[in-house]
Write a structure and sequence with these properties.
The structure holds 2 protein chains of 2 kinds. Chain A is mainly beta. Chain A has no helices and 11 strands. In chain A, strands 2, 4, 5, 6, 9, 10 and 11 form a 7-stranded mixed beta sheet that branches. In chain A, strands 1-3-8-7 form a 4-stranded antiparallel beta sheet, with no helix packed on it. In chain B, a hairpin with a 6-residue loop joins β4 and β5. Chain B is globular. Classes of the chains: A mainly beta, B mainly beta.
Chain lengths: ~120, ~110
């Protein structure tokens, strides 16, 4: 069966510090991978998605970046965190079919980032 | 591109009553409409989905209806229970559009009062 892991689960960082959130998927190959952010009490904001190694689409311009060094690994980074980067970050994957995105998104358990 | 509007943003119901959450979408090419439930501190999970060749789908106490002409779809939860309390998200997608992601609504916080 497929599983998705993301870490760390919680993170408290000072303004201006770097960030690295990691996500790995097991039990499948060639997944589409996604990073979402959820501010307190708000909806799901798509930050990045990837359809393959080294292929990253950015949905929102900001001081965050994403990388996909391996097929089932997705990393969210920042060189200098802002207060506004605080939130709940969710990694997700979906199967890839002939039509691209197919069916269900599978979310990780989330990483709660607090920037002080 | 696709735009999904979801209402209401918050909903409180008495245990045992029904809850209805409504969404509208803008892209007539969208043909896949999932609903996700997010419990506190966790990632969202798919609870039910519907494709555009179907008008209604039921799974025990949960049902989803789709009106393609009006471009809206709804989630119906009957006989609500406290464990139904969560944030619910609707989404829309054109499965023939290549690798573009799902577009989510802004979510509805459902509270079931015992």
């Amino acid at each position: 069966s497929q599983t998705i892991h993301q870490w760390p689960a919680t993170l408290v960082q000072p303004v201006g510090s770097p960030l690295s959130l990691e996500c790995t998927v097991e039990g499948t190959s060639n997944p589409n991978l996604y990073w979402y952010r959820q501010a307190a009490g708000r909806g799901l904001q798509l930050l990045f998605y990837s359809v393959g190694i080294g292929q990253i689409s950015s949905e929102v311009p900001q001081n965050l970046s994403a990388s996909r060094p391996q097929d089932r690994q997705f990393i969210l980074s920042s060189k200098k965190l802002l207060l506004s980067d605080s939130g709940f970050y969710l990694c997700a994957w979906s199967k890839r079919g002939r039509g691209g995105v197919t069916g269900e998104l599978f979310f990780g358990e989330g990483s709660r980032l607090t920037v002080l | 591109g696709e735009n999904v509007e979801q209402h209401p943003s918050t909903l409180s119901v008495q245990e045992g009553d029904s809850a209805v959450i409504k969404c509208t979408y803008s892209d007539s090419a969208s043909n896949y409409f999932p609903w996700y439930k997010q419990e506190l501190g966790k990632g969202p999970q798919l609870i039910i989905d519907i494709r555009s060749n179907v008008g209604e789908k039921k799974d025990q106490r949960i049902a989803v209806t789709l009106n393609k002409t009006a471009k809206h779809f709804s989630l119906h939860i009957t006989e609500t229970q406290p464990e139904d309390s969560a944030v619910y998200f609707c989404a829309a997608h054109d499965r023939n559009s290549g690798n573009t992601p799902l577009v989510f609504g802004k979510g509805t916080r459902l509270s079931v009062i015992a």
